[in-house]
């Protein structure tokens, strides 16, 4: 993983200003990750981001190495999964194979590719894996660590998620023609 980031080291030593800099540096990326996870629910994403930063502040002394943002994503993903279980936002083990609101063929010329809509149809683990690896540039190893899953499992989620996205977007594209 690597050495601890200097600002995180200062924050772990009790420097609240350093933690504030870390929050400002990472809050928009973390919120973007959570927006994807919550299927665009901005209020929930904001709540989860706030909970993530509060938990990170309480546990900053436990952060010992690697990417601070990766550590934040791990906390955020854990918070998201707790919300899913609590609110039953969506099934955790089932993906939607095809969109429920796919347009009729006669309306196909009006359909535009909508990656966010397609991403929302993936199970949370696939959505998180794809977001971390492709949108946020994490390596497979970093994403696996952030999501607290074995590397092989992470790679499976990435591959399955990509296949499902390709299938959904391919159907929509064919419908446009």
Can you describe this structure in just a few lines?
Helix content is 67%, strand content 0%. With 177 residues, it is mainly α.
List keywords for this structure.
177 residues, mainly alpha, Rna Polymerase Sigma Factor, Chain: A, Arc Repressor Mutant, subunit A, 8 helices
Report on this model:
By secondary structure, this protein is mainly α. The chain folds into two domains: 1-89, RNA polymerase sigma factor, region 2, helix turn helix motif (Rna Polymerase Sigma Factor, Chain: A, Orthogonal Bundle), CATH 1.10.1740; 91-177, Winged helix-like DNA-binding domain superfamily/Winged helix DNA-binding domain (Arc Repressor Mutant, subunit A, Orthogonal Bundle). It is built from eight helices and no strands. The chain has helices at residues 6-12, 16-37, 42-59, 68-87, 115-120, 124-135, 140-146, 151-176.
In which range does the helix fraction lie?
55-70%
Helix segment tally: 8
Structural class: mainly alpha
Q: How many individual domains?
A: 2
The averaged pLDDT comes out at 82
> Gyration radius, to the nearest Å?
18 Å
Shape designation:
globular
Q: Which class of the largest domain in CATH terms? A: Mainly Alpha
N-to-C order of helices and strands: HHHHHHHH
Helices, strands, pairings?
Blueprint: H1 6-12, H2 16-37, H3 42-59, H4 68-87, H5 115-120, H6 124-135, H7 140-146, H8 151-176
Helix pairs in contact: 1-2, 2-3, 2-4, 3-4, 4-7, 6-8, 7-8
């Amino acid at each position: 993983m690597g050495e601890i980031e200097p600002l995180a080291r200062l924050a772990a030593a009790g420097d609240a200003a350093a933690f504030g800099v870390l929050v400002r540096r990472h809050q928009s990326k973390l919120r973007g990750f959570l927006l994807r996870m919550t299927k665009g629910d901005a209020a929930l994403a904001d709540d989860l981001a706030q909970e993530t930063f509060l938990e990170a502040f309480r546990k900053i002394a436990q952060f010992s190495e690697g990417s601070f943002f990766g550590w934040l994503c791990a906390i955020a993903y854990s918070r998201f999964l707790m919300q899913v279980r609590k609110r039953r936002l969506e099934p955790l083990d089932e993906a939607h194979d095809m969109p429920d609101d796919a347009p009729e063929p006669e309306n196909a010329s009006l359909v535009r590719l909508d990656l966010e809509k397609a991403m929302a149809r993936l199970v949370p683990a696939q959505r998180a894996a794809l977001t971390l690896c492709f949108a946020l540039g994490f390596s497979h190893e970093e994403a696996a660590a952030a999501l607290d899953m074995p590397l092989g499992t992470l790679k499976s989620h990435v591959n399955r998620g990509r296949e499902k996205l390709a299938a959904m977007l391919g159907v929509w594209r064919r419908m446009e023609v």
